[in-house]
Amino acid sequence: EVKLQQSGDELVRPGASVRMSCKASGYTFTAYAIHWIKQSPGQGLKWIGTIVPLIDTTSYNQKFKGKATLTADKSSNTAYMELSSLTSEDSAVYYCARNWEYFDYWGQGIMVTVSS
Amino acid sequence: ETVLTQSPTTTAASPGEKVTITCRANSSVSYMHWYQQKSGASPKLWIYDTSKLASGVPNRFSGSGSGTSYSLIISSIESEDAATYYCQQKSSDPRTFGGGTKLELK
């Protein structure tokens, strides 16, 4: 069974950074890309970027360049996203998802709350 | 960026009714993908490559379209179909989603 298990919800201070994880199981980690997607409260979905674990290549939505950094650890089948210089605009649920053209499996989501 | 505009934004239907959700792009895309999201849950892939049903999706759902206009059609609504549906394109980066269509049951 394919599963993407994300780390827990985060409460972070404005100006801080946060790193979240997405552990893949049930398939060959290097055979698929991992994407990160943002959903702000009551809002729709925004694609942040993608990482191809096989070749450690990343591609970002221009709107998130400088905000998000994607990495992957092939030894533990885990993808990571770090968000920096957090503001209230970054409060949202963040999902990881698998595949190339479309997203066939999703993690359960991580709620990030930015508050002092 | 390719902007996807869904209509209607919200709709309500009675069980057994037919519902059509439209997704229009501001430039031509090759394929459209659709997701279903229920409250408090992650989105689920629902239709991919315009017209292919994801695993487990009932065949009362169908997808069609080309170029700048795509549709998700439910031939006969059931209570379990109440959800928000999003379209998504990958033809040009960044990948973008529509704003969503909330489907309610009367």
Overview of the molecule:
- The complex is a heterodimer of chains A (116) and B (106).
- With 116 residues, chain A is mainly beta.
- Chain A has strands at 3-6, 10-12, 18-25, 34-39, 45-52, 57-60, 68-73, 78-83, 92-98, 105-106, 110-114.
- In chain A, strands 2, 4, 5, 6, 9, 10 and 11 form a seven-stranded mixed beta sheet that branches.
- In chain A, β7 (68-73) and β8 form a beta hairpin.
- The termini of chain A are far apart.
- The model of chain A has no long low-confidence stretch (mean pLDDT 96).
- The model of chain B has no long low-confidence stretch (mean pLDDT 97).
- With 106 residues, chain B is mainly β.
- In chain B, β9 (83-89) and β10 form a beta hairpin.
- In chain B, 0% of the residues lie in helices and 50% in strands.
- Chain B contains no helices and eleven strands.
- The interface between A and B is medium-sized, with 20 and 21 residues.
